[in-house]
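Let's study a protein:

___
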Amino acid sequence: MKIAMLARNATLYSHKRLKEAAEARGHELNIINTLQCYMNIASRRPEIYYNSEKLPVYDAVIPRIGASITFYGLAVLRQFEMMGVYPLNESVAIGRSRDKLRSMQILAREGIGLPVTTFAHDPKQTEEVVRLAGGAPLVVKLLEGTQGIGVVLADTNRSAKSVIEAFRGANVNILVQEFIKEAGGSDIRVLVIGGKVVAAMKRTGAEGEFRSNLHRGGSAQTVKISPEERSTAVRAARALGLNVCGVDMLRANHGAVIMEVNSSPGLEGVEKATGIDIAGRVIEFLEKEARPGKTRTRGKG
């Protein structure tokens, strides 16, 4: 197969591992800087140019689109789809997962466990939002935040109100969620590929840190998940339409609740914690599924 990977930094662990895994299985994988692509949006003749040359038609494309360039990255990915290239994750599915509010609404519609989550536009509704979320402690989360950035724990109703009003006063959209105290600063990252759980790790925050992100000094170890947690992760991936994703969940007293579904999960933490060749599993999935024109979103918005 001839595979394109949309990524800005070819030296990242995840990107090097995917390239190694593809080449080890006899495939060619080219890493293409997403922002250096430009497109000819012509009727019946969609084209993508890179380094002043027209890109050939690939068999598959692996989108590793950073959150800060989601808009342009999805435009490039849609162009690949218009050319009939099979996407590891489709543009519409990535768009759903990147919109925290929309993804929560979709998961809620499917009856998948979530923390109590509230959302409002008018700062005058702050007290009601705090009440609906169950009162402090509460987690206030930026809609566009990633890797734990833009996530604040408010210990009292007064501090929650101040944080919410400050964000809304700056015209920043936020979600307000209940704080799952019993999780103890840990969460579970479950890797789903092709509708199956392939790995799971428990991430624990650094001392005094309620966020468990590895980028913020957290640690990871392999973990055995329950049938309920396995089912929750698979259902979440299916609801958002993602072939490959990392599902982040907390162990609440009333069962597993999902915090986020990541369409471009990092591989380093989970591969080192579990010893599982995730990159190889991704390439194996493409081998089985990649067919010209096999994308539901081709030609759609």
